[in-house]
Write a structure and sequence with these properties.
Length: about 130
């Protein structure tokens, strides 16, 4: 369904950038989405031709809105709602390649060390001293 203007959170959900509208709203409120270079609110009306910068995790999309929709369809339909810039596509590809090549050692750690981890750390410290 194409209209003259659509809420930005609905459009981001329909374009499949976010899995739910509430996640899209949280991202907008958190400053992860910029409309024409400025922070915005979830209820802001989006028009065809607007520029969006969407940051999800370590990845950033710079897209131009081509069509409006407030209904979530298939991925092929969602892809026709926007056009991504070539520079944005290259930056994301570089980020993917960088992640494949260099794995962050701390990325597997979750929260505080367990009792077993603590004992391993203590034995390392004792061996160094």
């Amino acid at each position: 369904m194409t209209t003259e203007a659509v809420r930005i959170d609905k459009w981001l959900w329909a374009a499949r950038f976010f899995k739910t509208r509430s996640v899209a709203q949280q991202a907008i409120e958190g400053g992860k989405v910029r409309l024409n270079g400025e922070r915005t609110k979830p209820a802001k009306e989006l028009k065809s031709g607007d520029a969006l910068v969407i940051r999800i995790g370590d990845y950033e999309w710079t897209v131009k809105v081509l069509a409006l929709s407030d209904k979530r369809g298939s991925a092929t339909i969602a892809r026709t709602l926007y056009e991504e810039g070539e520079e944005s596509r290259q930056k994301r590809a570089l980020e993917v390649a960088k992640r494949r090549r260099f794995n962050e050692p701390a990325s597997t750690l979750k929260g505080r060390p367990t009792k077993r981890d603590r004992r391993t750390l203590d034995t390392w410290k004792d061996n160094d001293a």
